[in-house]
Model the fold of this input.
Amino acid sequence: MKGRVEGKIALVTGGAQGLGRAIALKLAEHGAKIAVSDINKGGADETASLINTQYPNKAAAWRHDVTSEQDWQSVLAAVSGHYGGLHVLVNNAGIGGGSTVTETPYELFKKVQTVDVDSVFLGCKYAIPLMAKTVKDTNLGGSIVNISSIAGIIAAANQVSYNAAKAAVLHLSKSVALHCAKQQTGIRCNSVHPVFIKTPILDPLVERFGAEEAYAKLGRQIPLGHIGEPDDIAYAVLYLASDESKMVTGAELKVDGGISAM
Done:
């Protein structure tokens, strides 16, 4: 089924590779115009080019430091100028890092919170007014999708920074959802919680064990017996971005192969 987000304008952060690229491509496939942003402008340009090759004039790219308040304001103004508004914001940009609470340097802990949490706050803060106006003008629903992680629900001893950041995204999303509902903006907000996915974030493990063994080791932790593909997350975002999910807000969508049910 095509056209599930037909006519919508979507901004995907961290769109240079991995989940961001898969999400941008999937939304474009189903009719959205895509703004790809990333601190890696070359990678963002490549994603936009991949989209435009398949769906001409559907994508444009911007350099975007998601920890910068000024960058958020500038990029949103540029997207509005280029496309005329914004219906969908996918806060995908993020990093990992750190180990246990005693071994993680404070500076690294703060960096992970800044990239993974502050960026989501800034994106929501500055996108909501633009989105609310676009929703009103076009009569198409608005949606914020924040990419958290199953690590925001299930803790691990050696992921203190990432656990804290992704758990914060979960509740930040709920607060934003309630605000948007109370203000009758026409915008919903939800979080997505992936388990291990075949993206560059797994590269260190792949380099250590080789792809087959690395993916197998991770898959043994998951009830379904295997890790996920980027499109598994892209389809989840597509559902939340579309008006098919018009009664879904303040929810967390786990794409975790059953690991959180254990």
